[in-house]
Amino acid sequence: MTSSRPRLFSTEAVVLRHSDLGEADRLLWLLTPQRGILRATARGARKPGSKLGGHLDLLCHVRLSMREGRELHSVSQADTVDAFRGVRTDIGRLSRGLYMAEIAQRVSVEDAPAPAVFRLLVNSLGWLAATESPDTLVRWFALRLLTITGFKPELGACAECGDTLEPDDHVFSAERGGLLCPACRSQGADLLHPASLGTIKVLRHLARSDYPEVASLKIGGEERRQIERILRAHTNAVIDRGVRSAAFLDEIRDWPDVGPVPGGLRSES
Ligand SMILES: [Zn+2]
After folding, report:
1. What residues does the ion ligand 1 have nearby, CB within 5 Å?
2. Can you give the three-state secondary structure of 27-94, one letter per residue?
3. What pTM was estimated for this model as a whole?
4. Which of 1, 135, 143, 159 sits a CA distance of 20 to 30 A from 150?
5. Tens digits of per-residue pLDDT, 177-187?
């Protein structure tokens, strides 16, 4: 690859992860609207009084000026849009925010537009700072994230044969991607999670509603446990498949004749 002049671009971003790099630098994993996941360095960000460091904490929504790099970009300027202090000063909310950031990262691809995922994460961190039902928010977030990335679990009909499900208790298979009818549940050796009629109703309600509509939803203990197991199993199954597709994309990118991803260099104003 021939060297070219470093390009500057600006973008909004959420800091998903960071780690120390060298003496005083920081390595960042960012979620951006136009380019999905980006990795970047922030030089000197760990020095006391650094202009960058104060803006680049975990889960902060920031506006960045960046210098384009081949694999790693570098942050030249950072301004805070929202630090979500209500999330970062409460360990319970912080751990839920980090879980949301992690699954958003795992279902997103590097350098591919992800405006809906970005907006979902920013809105959800805003709600997380103040909501009285953070667990419902995490479940709603996981369901919405999987839906907008094309991995929505099948909740309306049997995931295997497509038959309408009678209003009754059923089972959920993460491997087959949704609820199963009584005839299909016995075919296969996959792990089946119980889904009571009440659980199915709540899942469908979460799937079709925006968060403010479900924030005060009362969910019974047994339904809560079933929904938690079902969404975790489905999320993990999607992530396992997603890791393979991300590795495949990396492989394509390494082929010598493939140029930059179209639209990947657009800066956002
Ligand atoms: Zn079926």
Report:
1. 158, 160-161, 163, 181, 184
2. EEEEEECCCEEEEEEECCCCCCCCCCHHHCCCCCEEEEEEECCCCCEEEEEEEEEECCHHHHCCHHHH
3. 0.86
4. 135
5. 999 999 999 98
